[in-house]
Design a protein that fits this description.
homodimer, Nucleoside Triphosphate Pyrophosphohydrolase, lyase activity (chains A, B)
Chain lengths: ~475, ~475
Amino acid sequence: MTVTTTTVDAARTMLRPREDTRLPERMARSALTTDGAGLRTEDFTDWLEARRRAHAFRVGRIPFSDLEGWSFLESTGNLVHRSGRFFSVEGLHVTVGDGPIREWQQPIIKQPEVGILGILVKEFDGVLHFLMQAKMEPGNPNLLQLSPTVQATRSNYTKAHKGADVKYIDHFTQPGRRRILADSLQSEHGSWFLRKSNRNMIVEALGEVPLDDDFCWLTLGQIGELLRRDNVVNMDARTVLSCALAPEPGTDALHSDTELLSWFTAERARHDVSAERVPLRDIRGWKRGHGTIDHEAGRYFSVVAVAVEAGNREVARWTQPLFEPHGLGVTAFLTRRFGGVPHLLAHARVEGGFADTVELGPTVQYTPENYAHLTAAHRPPFLDAVLDADPSRIRYEAVHSEEGGRFLNAESRYLFLESDEQEAPLDPPPGYVWVTPEQFARLLRHNHYVNVQARTLLSCLTSQAVRL
Amino acid sequence: MTVTTTTVDAARTMLRPREDTRLPERMARSALTTDGAGLRTEDFTDWLEARRRAHAFRVGRIPFSDLEGWSFLESTGNLVHRSGRFFSVEGLHVTVGDGPIREWQQPIIKQPEVGILGILVKEFDGVLHFLMQAKMEPGNPNLLQLSPTVQATRSNYTKAHKGADVKYIDHFTQPGRRRILADSLQSEHGSWFLRKSNRNMIVEALGEVPLDDDFCWLTLGQIGELLRRDNVVNMDARTVLSCALAPEPGTDALHSDTELLSWFTAERARHDVSAERVPLRDIRGWKRGHGTIDHEAGRYFSVVAVAVEAGNREVARWTQPLFEPHGLGVTAFLTRRFGGVPHLLAHARVEGGFADTVELGPTVQYTPENYAHLTAAHRPPFLDAVLDADPSRIRYEAVHSEEGGRFLNAESRYLFLESDEQEAPLDPPPGYVWVTPEQFARLLRHNHYVNVQARTLLSCLTSQAVRL
């Protein structure tokens, strides 16, 4: 019994509060700090250019036959790597219960392993700073963007491709002097990935952290300034930053949390979505050429191949397939204040590759060209409100690109648009719901509520690139 | 602008608190009330017997060839209904990264549609009462058990089988005078169902509710008394009740919520689970006879067929397949107090049919016979601690059966066992974590954290059938 008593006494002192109530204030202070202890924002462009010069990056398109280690399987036509790892391009047959297009087939990226997207943070002068990396990804229009501290597939950090170690990875995979501030599985693009999710982690280092080449410490406020520029902060950084969203708790909302969760549950349950893998060779409506797989009407995206040469990447030269979307996307939240409290109009979107029917996306998330052939009745809701918006209503606008490791020049205009009752009614159409930033922050602690495009926009709130 | 101003004023009054802070107290009051305004607990057995007599139930085993509307498909050997609805029995090929058995094939129930399990509650004399139903399910060992108000597949309430209306369903599917207290998607048995989940709903009626035959109003405390009896409260009722778990908020815990979520995220990410559907005809290790599909070693479960005749069911006679597990399961939480706060030892369980690799299960969830052939080193952790437990440590014990609409005589002993450092250390082995009831309550607001067996045990906390 002595042992037990001692253990209980020890355990009593080991109990801890369930919530870190200081975190919202610490994040807010970092967001309000625009002169950090590390790199100055006005020096950022020069620093990034210096990193660009320090390495020789070259990316060129190649025919599929020049892919090294990749090939189309005899049996299925699927595009796979000989190691069986990394990812594969397969076919997907999707049926949905309603909407203008209820059945289609398409190429899809299958990458079942869960990667880590992680940002290491540390206090300097009492302010949280984020360790960001200048990282080349072959699909980025400008190749080099600001990425999280760590952006690693499991193949990366278990060295399936025999490359160099992933820097700082131990902070995310090993216990030690650290405090975990956020850690959840979040989906990636459901239109291009089959059930893909990554761990989104924010970890506070409690000891010394050496600063490596290609890395810099920035406050949230500095990152917010960079988020107002086109194509600087990469998708992986944006999604992790969204998980740091930490508004002051306690505000009321149009819907209680239980009502919001019930609405979401009903949306999940009411959609019949079936997504079955099919051989890539057999998919209807797509044709394979020497260097591209294209939709017959030229819509949506193409599958292409590139060769990459880079000095600071884990391996020095490689070839790989990429998805190249057609057209510039438009991705926007309509926002309103109700009773003084800002709300965002979210959309329960069906995407064929989601793990579970729907996730909350922005009000608008479309590539307008893909809908040009549809009749006015089938035109996506709210799209015209965004395309025709009075510039005075635009609270935020920047062009960002999606994951440059899988997507080539996948750019979208991201916007926050102040709205009114006529454009975005208090009682929105089915499938839409008003959500406060704080409610989004709660949802982001859990898996698969908020899609990656909405997370990009929410990262602008985290960093106060936009204030509602 | 007038319109806008009016709308904003209206909206201000429409804002509401995000949390219903009175709910835990209201649930606790119902749990402490053992004499309800409806049926008295001491009259319950007679009432249930009267309901049993009021209908003629007969369930008998039949060969597969006597199934009506069901057949094995030529192409795959899958067992399907001619309507394409209800469910089908198919094959599943599972591979997991570690454990004593890393690859297997098995029959699995595929039922993609999301059903509703819902309990209507209403205040009488200031105390919440739950509207429960005496419902026959062919697989229940005693046929008639206490079910939720509504237990309906989508086929049920959209009338795929042309039966009678589902009573009270409008309270769950239609807006009206009601308040939603809980509504989340929760998984069912991952070893027998492929990615099956149901909406678990608790809805408070704000208007009059007529009391139908086969239904009764009970307080949580009364249901707690019935949960201490064997095979009275059915699985569907138990899982919904677990979602009413509402301990007083604010207690500390061994792990902060962020740490707990991070631990869970790591468990989800570290398991490589692949579950692929295969034709039922081809599964290795199973053999199909005239009336059963059995595992070659006689382990796990059999697929069987039954004919059912019932008076109060939606249709009067039907035949269907059922899964019949072999042996009595043992399902238990080991519990300890740390610093005065009760904790349950949860296990991140891999089950082939889960939507996402692992969910939190009880400490122990096994059918001992299925493990008799394994060496001591592969004996499930904590199983012997439960089997050999000193009776004075047993805080709760009852036999409950799983969903009688799909499973035949699927019984398990459910236990809470008070434990100590030797049996269940403060620092448990990998895959196990200490969780407070309040943390479970938070997780149960979201999808797919807590498996159905753990939810049965948690329903005993909701109803104070056991106090820790």
